[in-house]
Design a protein that fits this description.
39% helix, homodimer, Rossmann fold, Dna Ligase, domain 1, alpha/beta, 20% strand
Amino acid sequence: MDVTLQPFFHPTGIAVVGASHDPVKLGYGVARNLTQSGYAGAIHLVNPRGGELLGRATHRDLADVPDPVDLAVIVVPAAAVPSALRACGARGIHAAIIASGGFREVGPEGAALELEVARIAGELGIRIVGPNCIGLLDTHLPLDTTFLAPPPPTAGDVAFISHSGAICAAVIDWASGQGFGLSRLISLGNQADICETDVLAPVAADPHTRVLTLYLEGIRDGRRFIEQAERVSREKPVVALKVGRFAAGQRAVASHTGALAGHEAAYNAAFARAGVIRAETNEEMFDWARALAWCPLPQRRDIAVLTNAGGPGVVAADAIEALGLPLASLSESTVARMRAVLPTAASVHNPVDMLASAGPREYSECLAALLDDAGVGAVMVIMPPPPTHSAESVCEALVPVIRGSRKPVVLTLMGDALVRRASELLRAARIPDYRFPERAASALATLVRRAAFVGTPPSAPAQFADVRARDAHAVLTNAPDGFLAQDEVAQVMGAYGIELPRIVLAPNADAAVAAAEALGYPVALKVASPDIPHKSDVGGVLLGLGDRDAVRAGFTTVQANALHAHPRARLEGAHVQRMLPEGQEVIVGAVHDPQFGALVMFGAGGTEVEGVKDVAFALAPLPRAEADAMIDDTWAGRKLRGFRNVPPADRAATMEALMRLGQLVADHPEIAEVEINPLRVRLDGQGVVAVDVRLRVHRH
Amino acid sequence: MDVTLQPFFHPTGIAVVGASHDPVKLGYGVARNLTQSGYAGAIHLVNPRGGELLGRATHRDLADVPDPVDLAVIVVPAAAVPSALRACGARGIHAAIIASGGFREVGPEGAALELEVARIAGELGIRIVGPNCIGLLDTHLPLDTTFLAPPPPTAGDVAFISHSGAICAAVIDWASGQGFGLSRLISLGNQADICETDVLAPVAADPHTRVLTLYLEGIRDGRRFIEQAERVSREKPVVALKVGRFAAGQRAVASHTGALAGHEAAYNAAFARAGVIRAETNEEMFDWARALAWCPLPQRRDIAVLTNAGGPGVVAADAIEALGLPLASLSESTVARMRAVLPTAASVHNPVDMLASAGPREYSECLAALLDDAGVGAVMVIMPPPPTHSAESVCEALVPVIRGSRKPVVLTLMGDALVRRASELLRAARIPDYRFPERAASALATLVRRAAFVGTPPSAPAQFADVRARDAHAVLTNAPDGFLAQDEVAQVMGAYGIELPRIVLAPNADAAVAAAEALGYPVALKVASPDIPHKSDVGGVLLGLGDRDAVRAGFTTVQANALHAHPRARLEGAHVQRMLPEGQEVIVGAVHDPQFGALVMFGAGGTEVEGVKDVAFALAPLPRAEADAMIDDTWAGRKLRGFRNVPPADRAATMEALMRLGQLVADHPEIAEVEINPLRVRLDGQGVVAVDVRLRVHRH
């Protein structure tokens, strides 16, 4: 852990700068919460008017504060923050939480003040959380530097790191109602210094934290986040809610890949690489966090459902299968054990319907049987208000069975008042319960996903040793911003082992004919111009020209078509190449994402890429497993294995091209966009042909 | 309303047959609930042992029960139900709720008993709800024939009709906790007689019911359901949760359309036609039902968001835009009104962030300004626990503003204990509140959708007057089950105005050459066999044959290829046709769904239909609006308007072909599957060509 962050998480003494006597002021709230939090270190309340506050003497000046003190919570008006910081420096305090608002969030003047604050902190070596934040809370230390109205959150094992203070306030209150506690809570505010990435490792190091949850509005340094999150998520699950998907602006792009690679694709690729589980809603995030914190991980994906009624069982089965999980097939001995305790009319096949008469004995014995079945990975137990027994009596019988098993069990307690005590009982035993089968199923699916992640060793990106990075660099470094000429593209791609078909630039019709004679008929002719990105769109491409007359006429045609569409385009003649062998066509591309760097795309190629949207993204460079998954994530990729009368194509060569392109863009950040469209995939074993490649250079 | 159902909804007197003295018996529960429900009619408890029960004298025999009595609730053991029904008949009771279990749900013996019960009821003219059900509940009449443990549901305006009794029990309890009431609840059980379709109209006729919610495990008579639901949903919203999607079996199909037209596609098409809003989860169904019951419908789609913090505003904006709704642009006067009450740092653009200091005055004045803005269709107000005011004080100020407006407003109260009183206050004022912006946004989207449905007059299916139904019938009625021969297909399609290219069946190579000479070169050759569905898959199709030699050789080739793939196929020669004009290729097909009848499909054609899955479904016959929507729901359809270098194609002719096919399959239920693949769509104004059509007859 970064030692400069130590005072935030284990302060020896805390000074509240701006502790107020006025109960409606935030400075009062901070003083109140800190003193009531049970914090065991020294607490110093600083107020220029002095006097007593909350039964403690206050200090008129930070300079008067005695040792120990290594953390300041600053709640003075924005304009006074710079001098408060200087006072911290003078007193030897090198960690400050600035709760005060009035900075970047209020406009340009506030932003200037925030810059000044950051500058001062940098000069004095003070680390900052905030400004404009709610602060920091640790229910186990304990410690509470927030100004939120009581009650504080109950102690628990889920840490919450948030870009929004309001969401913190809501989550604390809501979590109490949902019956789970928090371990740590960090409100990061404007992040003038410390950001979400900085706190990942320190929070994960907390032994009381079993799951990290993140509310993110953006990430500043994408690659650093991935690196930190990947390390943390190997040890403890990280669940993130990333919002602001529609707020993000559009960037200028010239390729299909660029048009499809929005911020969301980049975030999804980054989270996938880092092992971060992305939730779509707040409720989903905490539904999953509870299960991750409390349940053992399943050893297999097969789910059993135990219920006392048909309807909820059907709902559960639907939800489980919709999430791609199989319903477990039960062994004969499991079926026999259940038959022994159930009425004959009960359904002993999964979902198991014990009928409405089921009570504590039936529930607990059937659950034990299911958990003993080697074919069962996890169990969902469903309880609509049981008509003849109380839900709590059933749960009392279930708890020891669940706690005694190494398989995860989640409960669906359907109802409200009739299941409330049962719910409290489960929560006390750290068994997650949900109101409806759909949410319980989603929690189980997350456990399965986490188990798969933990069970898969991390794989390093593929690195091809035959790559001549310097050759590519030589071309790229001399190229101006914009599209590379075709021969340069061929050099760059060739240096990374992606061969382009031989293409001859013919400045005039005679040269085109000579080239065709040399390459062999039939040939394709494509107008050569740096100004026309999609040449087939403007009639700039002719295929299958079989003799010299056709080539001569064709040269005139593509030039005329191109000029008609782009009257001011620079024309350099036409590219001539021999007609290529047949194959399936896919697209392989990459763009440079401002947050996360190079992003690779694979999918259905051709001119309709953006309409069909059959594409997958991942971060470059690509581990083999991710390249494999990208191909299978798209219909175009699945089709490479063959489909009906389409024979299997060279999937291995496609994967290699994808990984080589990933290595290329990761090595050369000046490549803004590169796109092979189409990559023609020949029959299995015959390789791929990069039919058309465009590469745009842009220095950042 | 069916007059035979009258006693269920407005009984004059109710006999409980099997009223029990034993408090753990269901027969006691029914007696208790009915007597405690406040039911104003006569209550007769029937128990063979006689005596007093719940302060009332019981009758030993149903025959002894005095007038008025027109409804029986039967809670005797299954074996005694037939005699209980006969007693009802003898006493002149023609409506019975059979709560008893032990019928179809327990196996073949129970199913036989259920058939007997239905037969007896039919003979005696007794209508039945159940067996194996929880019964019927009306909170306004009031009336409660269930045996569920108290408390009963609170009175409200949402009716719940359910195929599952356990879900009823859970929903009653859960609804109380969520703060909304039910008007009527009907548990249908095994539906030996009365089913979900029967009760739609009677429940919708209830003045206290504002929204109908349905929990469905299946629908017996699909077309009757659509007819009834369509009528009801014009008056009152119907929200349905249909489960059991994975339980449904696969049926035998031979076409792409059949393979893609699962039960889910049929249900979606049926709900769309009937105006039924399909929810994915229980929570969604009731989130939506509350908004539909309590809010006016929006006059426009633009949503404004009012909040006191940035984070929740971003979450709301994400959710609103993800649902396809626009964020409203605010007028200058609205902005000015808000500026007048807000601090300068507040963000007065949508989402409006009033900052954490916002209290009752800021919330209510800004909401009033937003509601007065003609560009705003609906408002979401968000309240994380306000740091300086209580949530209830804010809500008190908001209620009159909301109730005084004709625009819908939904609240997001984030938290639990800190917003509980505010939530109660809103619910008492019939204003829907949710815990998170995502769920509130989903409720708003449902209001917008309902407004669009109500604002669109119902449109009758397209009927082409030039259709020669009798000609088609003559062919179909003589055809055996199986695929029609090509000439028969041409006759059937031609009768509905879908012309096929002229195709000549050539039994041998000489005939093929003769046909080609007559049709004109180049031609296509396709093996003729009733046993080979996908002819191109087996090399049975050759294109662009340019002269007699090519045709002669081709004939031998397609025969040999076909026999190689299907050695036992019957070969009838080859079909010869002139090569067709170019165009975009789509698929237009139809299948007969066992539940809902003819179902039409449109989408991306070719051989990869099932992989690409770019298809849309609707019920036949097709109203023009639905045909239009189907085309726009698919990428293949949107592309007909033109895309990049693909010119606009004849969308109107495509739509007509779709509607004509719909009329064909609706008129002739013996058509099990019919598929035009591809339908080649020529340039705008040039029409379509049904390149390849297959039609399978199957009598049900």
